[in-house]
């Protein structure tokens, strides 16, 4: 099939590559000529394991191209996937400006064809319920203005890929959700994903739109639940990891997303939890559970810092090393990373800061220019009064902690992700504090 993907951000780029790998002819379209040129030359503007190699392979095979010229590719596309950004508005609701611009452009470009069929326009961006209908309206308005009839059909096709595992998730999804209000749209969208062999669920467009928000909000709820429980575990002397383990063996709960820590970050959970609440409030409802999910998440970095201060006392003048800056390992993305409020607070308290992260230092340097950025992990640890582990990078977890202890001025380690072996850390001479499990 011939597929156009509009928007070459995380989701858009991964989708172009995954669909080309599935045997389709794919064109990625973006308004940013620098980005398009880079992608066309095989350069990925983000760090994502395996994606750049796959991109180069598909470019070389000739099934994948990138352009700024939507008009050039749109006319012979069977499916147009919209994967443009939907950043939060001032009130947390999704800003659909980019989506409207693309929809209107489609309406100005679509041409009738002799078979009397039109393309399927599927929204991949995470959008509020009802957006599919609005996109249809925007396209139709432009067609009507031109006096042209093109029988295009709408679909919703939410994406569930995770950063750091984007290509894997796009090629091996747990499920493909297709929201379609006509049999032809459903059938064409099913054929797009047929090569993946993944289970497919066909719903209405509104249901598909809600499934995406509901899934992210539920995963965020699991995390905030465990983070709040960790606070109680600490008070009553229970170990949150053992508790999570025992809960996860119940198939109704499952072991995933029960990892307590310093709170969730990234480009999706914080934004989607807020957007779902904004949608609720526009519908005259308030989602109390999600309010709590957000509030626990906002206060989790502060809770962690409180623990650090209760051990170290005033932080003024202390040499503190922060390991991990990105919101999770395997990415260079620092959006909504819990490391941001933590660095901010440490700075305000007058601590001297050194940071190390395999991928996130360039971005963090722009926000915190006075932090010292170490060029490697051993250098970051040298002469520290305390170490705060904020992202569970493999390099950090696998580090030779046994021999590093003597490099620190004071051997305090606060593990915000519960990834180091507490028993061994104590044995090696550290004063080690995890999250509800020391
Ligand atoms: C998420 C969803 O998983 C994905 O389906 C959706 O398409 C986009 O949003 P992503 O943001 O890439 O993906 O990362 P994810 O692995 O879900 O982690 C999100 C945040 O939650 C990270 O900050 C992570 O550290 C945190 N997290 C995750 C926890 O604190 N505990 C857990 O048990 C799991």
From TrEMBL:
SMART domains in alphabetical order: UDPG_MGDP_dh_C (SM00984)
UniProt entry tagged with the keyword NAD: yes
Reaction catalysed by this enzyme: UDP-alpha-D-glucose + 2 NAD(+) + H2O = UDP-alpha-D-glucuronate + 2 NADH + 3 H(+)
Class of this enzyme: oxidoreductase
Oxidoreductase found in the keyword field: yes
Keyword set, alphabetical order: NAD, Oxidoreductase
EC nos: 1.1.1.22
Name of this protein: UDP-glucose 6-dehydrogenase
Organism encoding this protein: Tumebacillus amylolyticus
Species lineage: Bacteria, Bacillati, Bacillota, Bacilli, Bacillales
């Amino acid at each position: 099939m011939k597929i156009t993907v509009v928007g070459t951000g995380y989701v858009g780029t991964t989708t172009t590559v995954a669909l080309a790998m599935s045997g389709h002819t794919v064109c990625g379209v973006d308004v940013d000529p620098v980005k398009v040129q880079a992608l066309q030359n095989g350069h990925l503007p983000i760090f994502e394991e395996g994606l750049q190699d796959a991109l180069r392979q598909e470019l070389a095979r000739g099934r994948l191209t990138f352009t700024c010229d939507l008009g050039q590719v749109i006319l012979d596309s069977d499916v147009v996937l919209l994967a443009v950004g939907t950043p939060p508005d001032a009130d947390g609701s999704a800003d659909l400006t980019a989506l409207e611009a693309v929809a209107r452009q489609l309406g100005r470009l679509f041409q009738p064809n002799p078979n009397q069929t039109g393309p399927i326009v599927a929204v991949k961006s995470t959008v509020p319920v009802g957006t599919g209908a609005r996109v249809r309206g925007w396209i139709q308005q432009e067609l009507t203005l031109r006096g042209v009839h093109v029988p295009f059909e709408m679909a919703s096709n939410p994406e569930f890929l995770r950063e750091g595992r984007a290509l894997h998730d796009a090629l091996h999804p747990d499920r493909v959700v297709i929201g379609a209000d006509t049999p032809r749209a459903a059938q064409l969208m099913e054929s797009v994903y047929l090569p993946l062999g993944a289970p497919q669920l066909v719903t209405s467009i509104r249901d598909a739109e809600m499934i995406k928000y509901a899934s992210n909000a539920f995963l965020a709820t699991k995390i905030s639940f465990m983070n709040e429980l960790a606070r109680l575990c600490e008070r009553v002397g229970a170990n949150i990891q053992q508790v999570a383990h025992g809960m996860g063996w119940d198939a109704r709960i499952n072991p995933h997303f029960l990892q307590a820590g310093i709170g969730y970050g990234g480009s999706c959970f914080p934004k989607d939890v807020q957007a779902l609440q904004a949608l609720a409030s526009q519908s005259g409802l308030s989602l109390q559970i999600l309010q709590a999910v957000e509030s626990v998440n906002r206060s989790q970095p502060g809770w962690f810092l409180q623990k650090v201060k209760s051990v170290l006392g005033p932080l003024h003048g202390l040499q503190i090393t922060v390991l991990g800056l990105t919101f999770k390992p395997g990415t260079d993305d620092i959006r909504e990373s819990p490391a941001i409020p933590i660095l901010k607070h440490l700075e305000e308290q007058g601590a001297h800061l050194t940071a190390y992260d395999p991928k996130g230092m360039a971005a963090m340097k722009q926000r915190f220019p006075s932090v010292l950025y170490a060029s490697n992990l051993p250098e970051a640890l040298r002469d520290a009064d305390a170490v705060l582990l904020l992202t569970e990078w493999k390099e950090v977890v696998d580090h030779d902690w046994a021999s590093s202890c003597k490099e620190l001025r004071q051997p305090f380690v606060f593990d915000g992700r519960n990834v180091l072996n507490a028993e061994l850390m104590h044995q090696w001479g550290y004063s080690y504090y995890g999250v509800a499990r020391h």
